[in-house]
Structure formats: structure tokens, C-alpha cells
Design a protein that fits this description.
Blueprint: E1 3-7, E2 12-17, H1 30-37, E3 48-51, H2 64-74, E4 83-88, H3 91-97, E5 107-113, E6 131-137, H4 148-162, E7 168-170, E8 174-177, E9 180-192, E10 195-205, H5 231-252, H6 258-263, E11 271-276, E12 279-288, E13 294-298, E14 301-305, E15 309-311
Parallel strand pairs: 4-5
Antiparallel strand pairs: 1-2, 2-3, 5-6, 6-10, 7-8, 8-9, 9-10, 11-12, 11-15, 12-13, 13-14
């Protein structure tokens, strides 16, 4: 039983039953909820809604204490209710354009994107059935911004594992299953006169698409793997793991997630090539440093790689 909290542009919060969690932060089963909140059996399309600053329950069998209790779950440790759109040009662009009025931790997801993009401004194909989402971050400490995509990769892996998949990370920002792409990740920093305003971390997860052999690289989806779930379920899990590990990474950097990253780094110990622009470096993927950089053993010795496309 999930109570999924949503926020629209008017600042109205809503919730509906749709799965197994109260929020991405705090798990509770149905019996526990009914015991402590006296919930009634409401249908999947029954919503409650109220202004954020002044709760007032409408059109629901939930009591006001229940509404407030669920909302507090959602705001636990700063997590914000995700904003949902049927279609956007790009979830990253939406958060960048609205960063002044949205808080740290705001998340947005869309069923479709008309102008999604990946690294190096590559076009991202946003097929129907995928999960396309971004998170707005306003970090006070800027030392570890480069590791946010790696945190998202680890979080996506944890989420997919919970659903029964066996994901691996392709350094620095892709998640694969059986050597086929299932998730791509991009982060963009927003600055004003050299001052960091915000960072947006975006991801696309293949949930229910079919016919992914038609895109420009081997790809798969949870549905093609025989895992049937919803986009909201995947998003809940990813946010749960992301916010669980974000405080530690923000304070101490990549080393806090390095063990999780390394156990899922499929190319470790393999002969690889790293392409960066016109330059290609060949060697053995020896390690990922405590800073998150790739350590490549080349014919001339170890080389630290900060950016590039990994080819196995």
C-alpha cells in the first residue's frame, strides 16, 4: 500500500494508494498504517489534497492527523514530493528554469520528454514507458559535485536489485543489465557569475519499453527482463536510496559509496578503451579512486581518467 505524495504547480499536495510504501524514506505495511492512522479502505483513485502551509483534507476518507502524518513522512530529511507531468521538453530544463522557486530536493518526472539529452548534449530517446526524472540540489559544500552522477548510478542499482534485476555500472554514468543499457544519468551545474546556484541530476530508466533494439546501442528494459512494475515504484526506490546516501556523500565524498560502486563496476580488471573527443586511451580498468576517477593501467603506466566514454 503506497501513499504517493504529489505536488502540482499551485503547491497542492496529493496522495493516493498505489503500492508498498508510505514514502521513499519510511517503509510501513498496511496493517501498521491502519493501526496508527485508522485508515479506511480507499480506492486507487481517491486523493486527498491540501495547501502545503495549511493542511485541509478534502474528498477523502483519511483523517487530518493521517494526512499530516503522511506528509511528515514525505518531508523526512528534506525529501520533497515529486512533481509529475505527462510531457515535458526535459525534466532537467524544467528544474533549471524553475530553480529560484523550487526548494533543494525538488524532484520532477515525466511520462514523455520531447527534448531529452544525455552527456555531451547527445539526444536522449524518451520512449513511452520509461521513467524520466531529475532532482534539484542546492548543496552548500561543492567539493563532491562530480560524484553526484555516481551516487545516482549506485542508487539506481540498489533500486533495480530490489526489483529482481542484476545491474552493473558502466563508468561513469550508465547502468546496464547483461551489457545492455537500462539507465543513463546526467548532471548539470547552474552558476551565476562564478557562483554555484544549483545542480540538477537527471536520469532515464527503461521500465516498460519494448523494441529497444531500434536505438543506437544495445538496451533493455525491466519489462523485457520479465520484471513488471510501475514508474512510480522505481522512482520511489531510487529516491529512497539516493537520499539515504546523499548526506554522507555530501560530507565525505565518493569514498562513502565506493565499495557499492566497485562491486557493480563490470569492467574492473578488463581491457578497455576510454574515448574523450578525438583521443582514445587503451588499458586495463584497474580501479576507481576514492575521488571517483577511473584508474587505467596503460602501456606507459597508470593513468587517471576524469571524463570519457568507456568501451569494453
Amino acid at each position: 500500500m503506497i501513499f504517493q505524495i504529489r505536488t502540482d504547480l499551485r503547491g497542492v499536495v496529493g496522495a493516493r494508494r498505489s503500492g508498498n510504501y508510505v514514502s521513499p524514506k519510511v517503509r510501513a505495511n498496511r496493517q501498521n498504517l491502519e493501526n496508527c492512522l485508522s485508515l479506511k479502505d480507499i480506492g486507487n483513485e481517491n486523493f486527498f489534497s491540501f495547501p502545503m502551509r495549511k493542511p485541509q483534507v478534502t474528498n477523502t476518507s483519511l483523517s487530518k492527523p493521517a494526512v499530516i502524518f503522511i506528509l511528515l513522512f514525505c518531508y523526512n530529511k528534506g525529501m520533497q514530493p515529486p512533481i509529475h507531468f505527462e510531457e515535458l521538453d526535459s525534466t532537467i530544463t524544467y528544474l533549471k528554469n524553475n530553480r529560484a522557486t523550487l526548494p533543494h530536493g525538488a524532484a520532477v518526472y515525466a511520462d514523455r520528454q520531447t527534448a531529452g539529452r544525455g552527456r555531451f548534449n547527445r539526444k536522449w530517446v524518451s520512449q513511452e514507458g520509461g521513467l524520466y526524472f531529475s532532482i534539484l540540489l542546492k548543496p552548500k559544500d561543492t567539493r563532491f559535485l562530480a560524484n553526484l552522477t555516481q551516487l545516482m548510478a549506485v542508487s539506481v542499482c540498489h533500486a533495480l536489485e530490489e526489483l529482481g534485476a542484476d545491474p552493473k555500472i558502466k563508468w561513469p554514468n550508465d547502468v546496464q543489465v547483461n551489457m545492455q543499457k537500462i539507465c543513463g544519468i546526467l548532471s548539470e551545474a547552474i552558476t551565476d557569475n562564478g557562483r554555484l546556484e544549483a545542480v540538477v541530476v537527471g536520469a532515464g530508466v527503461n521500465v516498460a519499453q519494448e523494441g529497444l533494439d531500434k536505438i543506437d546501442q544495445p538496451a533493455t528494459s525491466l519489462k523485457e527482463l520479465g520484471i513488471h512494475t510501475t514508474k512510480e515504484r522505481v522512482l520511489d526506490l531510487v529516491l529512497e536510496f539516493f537520499w539515504r546516501d546523499y548526506p554522507a556523500l555530501s560530507a565525505n565524498g565518493f569514498k562513502t559509496i565506493r565499495p557499492d560502486f566497485l562491486t557493480r563496476f563490470a569492467a574492473l580488471g578488463k581491457e578497455v578503451a576510454v574515448k574523450n573527443g578525438e583521443k582514445t586511451i587503451f588499458g586495463t580498468a584497474e580501479d576507481v579512486s576514492p575521488n571517483g576517477t577511473l584508474i587505467l593501467r596503460t602501456a606507459t603506466g597508470p593513468e587517471e581518467i576524469y571524463i570519457g566514454d568507456l568501451i569494453v
